[in-house]
């Protein structure tokens, strides 16, 4: 039996994907062998993993992952490593299994990755989107109310529609109320309805959105815009499914699901006394956050193809050069902005491509990322860009670590042998002082 490590580093390993997705392992021993053999400490039943694939060494100050000459290799952020220091937040990939390192006391749970590349009309293959799809798969059939958070253009409305379409209420109505788009004086009647004569202009009884959504779903877009005085009435709808039309005396019971969305931080609105705490807590029971596009640039090619497909165009409708440019832009307006630009270029020709400053614009461009590269074929341009990034990164790293290779390898989280290889490739090896 191994002795528990008294060390200061306390971390746990969450299995994000593969057949064991969802499991967690506290790293409280000195050493772990990870692989598919039954004798391993952490057994991962994945055909693409070696019998003994990786050793995890828990030291007092740090945790090391050492590849055991595995057939398919161990990777971190797309780079193969033979040895690296594991830090909280590191995600390593062994075969097709992804493992995330988190602090021992983290409340983060392993969210297994969905095998889907779309949920309704939402598409994505990035880890972040596949986590979202897993959540949506679980939330959709249950019928509970859901809060969707995300920046503008991240697909909140598509997400609400998909939740509706994949629920038991799919055959019922899907009613959208955009609270940012209605005059505040009309919101009450729009949501709750009114009786004839309730106010000037109320010429007949009218059912509000909740009643009209009977048997289906109400999508409350920009719920943060709901005036404070109406918030207790929404809370009553959520808790008791009861609505009272403006001017009526009695409550009616309604059977519908509420999906609300916000692009603002509702917790901040609660602190600023603009949103009721009780309503926030009720809404936030089931929450899903759609990641910004800049957090998942690997989804851009698929999104471009999806937009082209929806326009009836083949992927070849855009040149590799334009695609490379679109893949580098940070998209503050998210997928909506990307869609608009793709449509513009397809309709007006590639000369109509607006000027798109690349990611990190404003900062000095890495030496490999000059616009001259953008005239090259995609593969070559990408390689040059990566080379430029590697060179700049290594120079900065060596300066920071005063040429000490051991320190540099620790700081960068890459194996010494690999680091030396990279330095040699870029003619920087003679600066080794370590
Ligand atoms: N993951 C995605 N896959 C495919 N299309 C997407 C995705 N996300 C967004 N879109 C497209 O982007 C556009 C904006 O999406 P949507 O209206 O759902 O965003 P939103 O978050 O509700 O925006 P807002 O906060 O401004 O209302 C739509 O055309 C939608 O089709």
TrEMBL record:
Ranges of residues in domain FHA: 32-81
Matching InterPro entries: AAA+_ATPase, AAA_lid_NorR, FHA_dom, Homeodomain-like_sf, HTH_Fis, P-loop_NTPase, Sigma_54_int, Sigma_54_int_dom_ATP-bd_2
GO BP annotations listed: regulation of DNA-templated transcription
Sigma-54 factor interaction domain segment(s): 122-347
Single GO molecular function: ATP binding
KW DNA-binding (keyword) present: yes
SUPFAM superfamilies linked: Homeodomain-like, P-loop containing nucleoside triphosphate hydrolases, SMAD/FHA domain
Keywords: ATP-binding, DNA-binding, Nucleotide-binding, Transcription, Transcription regulation
Protein's recorded name: AAA family ATPase
Organism expressing this protein natively: Cystobacter ferrugineus
């Amino acid at each position: 039996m191994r002795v528990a490590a008294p060390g200061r580093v306390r971390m746990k390993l969450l299995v994000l994907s593969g057949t064991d997705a969802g499991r967690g392992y506290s790293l409280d021993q000195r050493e772990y062998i990870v692989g598919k053999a039954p004798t391993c400490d952490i057994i991962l039943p994945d055909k693409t993993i070696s019998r003994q694939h990786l050793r995890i060494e828990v030291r007092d100050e740090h945790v090391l992952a050492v590849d055991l000459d595995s057939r398919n290799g161990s990777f971190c952020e797309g780079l193969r490593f033979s040895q690296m220091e594991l830090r909280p937040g590191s995600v390593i990939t062994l075969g097709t299994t992804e493992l995330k390192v988190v602090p021992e006391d983290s409340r983060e749970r392993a969210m297994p990755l969905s095998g889907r590349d779309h949920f309704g009309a939402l598409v994505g293959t990035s880890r972040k989107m596949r986590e979202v799809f897993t959540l949506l798969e679980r939330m959709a059939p249950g019928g509970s109310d859901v809060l969707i958070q995300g920046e503008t253009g991240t697909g909140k409305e598509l997400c609400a529609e998909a939740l509706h379409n994949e629920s038991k209420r799919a055959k019922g109505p899907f009613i959208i109320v955009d609270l940012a788009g209605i005059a505040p004086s009309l919101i009450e009647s729009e949501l709750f309805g009114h009786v004839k004569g309730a106010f000037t202009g109320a010429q007949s009884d009218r059912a509000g959105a909740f009643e009209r959504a009977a048997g289906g779903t109400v999508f409350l877009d920009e719920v943060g815009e709901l005036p404070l005085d109406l918030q207790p009435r929404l809370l009553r709808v959520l808790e008791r499914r009861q609505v009272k039309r403006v001017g009526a005396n009695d409550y009616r019971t309604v059977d519908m699901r509420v999906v609300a969305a916000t692009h603002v931080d509702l917790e901040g609105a609660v602190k600023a006394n603009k949103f009721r705490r009780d309503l926030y807590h009720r809404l936030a029971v089931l929450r899903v956050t759609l990641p910004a596009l800049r957090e998942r640039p690997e989804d851009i090619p698929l999104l471009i193809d999806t937009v082209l497909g929806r326009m009836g165009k083949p992927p070849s409708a855009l040149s590799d050069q334009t695609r490379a440019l679109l893949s580098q832009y940070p998209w503050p307006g998210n997928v909506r902005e990307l869609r608009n630009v793709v449509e513009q270029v397809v309709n007006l020709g590639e000369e109509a491509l607006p000027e798109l400053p690349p990611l990190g614009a404003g900062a000095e461009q890495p030496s490999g990322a000059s616009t001259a590269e953008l005239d090259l074929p995609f593969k070559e341009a990408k390689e040059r860009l990566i080379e430029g990034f590697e060179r700049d990164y290594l120079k900065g790293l060596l300066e920071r670590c005063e040429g000490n290779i051991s320190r540099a390898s620790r700081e960068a989280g890459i194996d010494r042998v690999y680091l030396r290889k990279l330095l040699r490739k870029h003619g920087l090896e003679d600066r080794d002082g370590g």
